[in-house]
Amino acid sequence: MHIHAIREQLRALGAKPEHEQRILRDWLQVRSRSSGRRKAEDYLPLSLREGLGEFDAGLRNLVRLVSSHATPDGSARLLVGLADGQTVESVLLPRDGLCVSSQVGCAVGCQFCMTGRDGLLRQLTSGEIVGQVALARSIRTVKKVVFMGMGEPSHNLQNVMEAIDLLGTEGNLGHKNLVFSTVGDPRVFEQLPLGTVKPALALSLHTTRQDLRERLLPRAPRIAIEDLVELAEEYARKTMYPVQYQWTLLDGINDGEEELDGIVRLLKGRHAIMNIIPYNAVDGLPFSRPPDEHAREMIRILHRRGILAKLRDSAAQEVDGGCGQLRARALGPAAPRPIAIHRA
Ligand SMILES: C[S@@+](CC[C@H](N)C(=O)[O-])C[C@H]1O[C@@H](n2cnc3c(N)ncnc32)[C@H](O)[C@@H]1O
Ligand code: SF4
User: Ligand 1 pocket test: which of 277, 279, 312 has the largest number of ligand atoms within 8 Å of its C-beta?
Assistant: First the structure.
């Protein structure tokens, strides 16, 4: 179910805008001062309360917790069941963060990522995306949501934007605490600036070499890297928030001097942060992460050359919940065959 359908259902039950807001805030576990810990039942008119039982059951059916795998650093991989028997994964991150999925699988097929290995199985509805936040908040506080789980948000743009809109309003999350992570697609740069809530942007770059990027991200849009960075910079200027460039660090592939020169050439003077994410192991893939000291030295060199760079080791790797380790796990009926992405 989509958020707009959820809102339509409420209106059909007779909810006024203030009721609709309270019910959505209750779902997202946001308490206003006046409502305190009261549930919707305590302040809604009787006529509306009567229809709410079925409505609530519908919301609860959107997503359910199948299992949770915690690590000592306070992160946990959550296996989330959907009404049709499919599953996605969300990750509770340290410091009240949550990583959510936007699709079951992914069509981009990045060579180093588990999620892309079986292609795209289906899009998540906006209700299923927001449902992951509601579910996580039933476990613990969530103050930041990153779209870095399964899927490429630009391939499910309308639903992701609808989810962001609700999370950034009734969900009590500031736009800087919503992070849209993408390989980059012209539609993202057209559409995101038009949203009421403009999330922070993470751009998965991985290399400054066009030919290598096309091999590593085989079905990402073929945009010249310089153009991609220019489009991202324009978005950063509009939102006054830096672009977070993502760089999955692969030993012997994108960790050399040529790449460091390329990063400096592309990003010097830009409103940008370079996040270096050492590769997380995925079974059967021919990649490895360079030694930690090499990654730290790259960061030091970038700093010396005027680039703000951070080493971001993924949380929850021990339980296969690190960046790129998420996948649809077998549950219930046989998984449908992958489908091709339809480009607008
Ligand atoms: C799983 S993707 C989801 C969001 C979006 N599809 C994207 O690529 O930005 C989130 C981040 O995980 C990174 N990633 C994928 N596979 C990885 C791996 N095996 N090790 C470390 N990072 C990985 C991606 O490069 C991307 O920056
Ligand atoms: S890294 Fe992102 S775009 Fe690439 S396959 Fe994984 S989920 Fe898809």
Answer: 277
* Closest residue by CA, ligand 1 atom 10: 148
Q: Which regions of the chain does DSSP assign to beta strands (E)?
A: 63-70, 76-82, 87-93, 97-99, 103-105, 120-123, 144-147, 178-182, 200-204, 243-249, 272-278, 309-311
Instruction: Give the neighbor-by-neighbor strand order of the sheet with 144-147.
Output: 63-70, 76-82, 87-93, 97-99, 144-147, 178-182, 200-204, 243-249, 272-278, 309-311
The model carries a pTM of 0.93
Catalytic positions are 89, 323
**Predicted ipTM of the assembly:** 0.99
Task: Please give the residue range of the domain that contains residue 218.
Answer: 64-319
Question: Which ligand has the shortest distance to the CA of 203?
Answer: 1
- State which ligand 2 atom lies nearest to the alpha carbon of 113: 6
Pocket of ligand 2 (CB under 6 A): 106, 108-110, 113, 115-116, 151-152, 183, 324
- What's the CATH code of the domain at 70? 3.20.20.70
The answer to the question of residue 40 being in a domain is: no
Whether residue 263 lies inside any domain: the answer is yes
Residues with Cβ within 8 Å of 147's Cβ and at least 6 positions away in sequence, in order, are 99, 100, 102, 153, 160, 178, 179, 180, 181, 199
pLDDT in tens, 109-121: 999 999 988 899 9
Number of domains in the chain: 1
Query: What is the Å distance from ligand 1's center to 154 Cα?
Result: 14
User: Is residue 150 in a domain?
Assistant: yes
Q: Is residue 108 part of a domain?
A: yes
Distance 221 CA to ligand 2 centre (A): 13
Quick check: 300 pLDDT over 60? yes
